[in-house]
Amino acid sequence: MVGFDFLSPLIELLAAVLGFIYVYLIATNRSSGWIFGIASASFYAVFFYRVHTWGLFSQQITYIILGFYGLFNWSKSDELPIRTLGKSIWLWILGSLMLGLMFFIVQWFTKDDVHGHFSFTSLPNWRSFLDAQFFVFSLTATWLTTRKILENWHIWIVVNVVGTIWFAYEHWWSSSVLYLAYLFLAINGLKKWKKQLSV
Length: 199
Prior knowledge:
Blueprint: H1 7-27, H2 33-50, H3 54-74, H4 89-109, H5 126-146, H6 152-169, H7 173-198
């Protein structure tokens, strides 16, 4: 963790404001939201780089790539319909959980002091496990959002609850407040998309 500086909180605040606009526009089914999402992820990438949080940094780079894909996909002349996966969403959730667990295990085995010998004291701390799961589930939800799959909101609701608590614990206040706002936007987005799906 680097020492406190005045620039990082400003970058975080700008990223948070852009992120709020992004989720609001996506929840109201507007493709212009992806532009704000790309901008938000860019500023968050700088922020997480400055605080040396590499999982969240990598996540933002992937968000930028998915943002361009989402913008392209949502901007096609034929409007992309909202769809549902139904019970098969559990396959996505299980796959995401396993992928996050795999990242966690790879991180443990690549630690210099472990050398493949199991020890509870040598396991990466809870932040490493949370970072891996947060990374994978956020990307899964973003991918589902780019395809306008209704269940993306279910995953986002869980991610936003975790993010609100985690970022408050880390004293990243702008991000914590943002994820709390994301939670309400995700609930609203779920209602709006359900309504559009049933029309």
